[in-house]
Amino acid sequence: LIGNSKGASNLNVNLYFNSFSHCLSQCTKLHTKDRSITQIYNQFRKVPKVTGGTDYEQIWHYINNSPKRTRELSLIITDFEWTPRNAYVKHPDNLYYIPCSHVNWDYLLISAKDFCRDMLRNEPNIRKRLLF
User: Fold this and answer.
1) Pairing of strands 74-78, 28-30
2) 90, 119 in Cβ contact below 8 A?
3) Considering the chain, what percentage of its residues have pLDDT values greater than 70?
């Protein structure tokens, strides 16, 4: 988030944050406008986060079910450890994935490769949605 916070600070915009696992948290507005990276990061650290197994499909439904959210840029910070179910779910058009930090880089690359292979049914251009 630190790298993205700098971008948010430079753009002078606010960010909205959800954490997720098998459930999706409530949306929290991070006041990044006119704040330093340290202020943004400290605010982010105070937001309660959910933990547990990963389920991206709930995020896709959450975005797809709102015309407003479908127009917004959405980012998932992830370790790419997820396999989609066999059923097709529309992948949101403005959703992108960013690798999380503090993960073994070689392992993360293997997980990202597997994620891309498994996601082809839901999003044939998934590689273009990974921001490394």
Assistant:
1) unpaired
2) no
3) 91
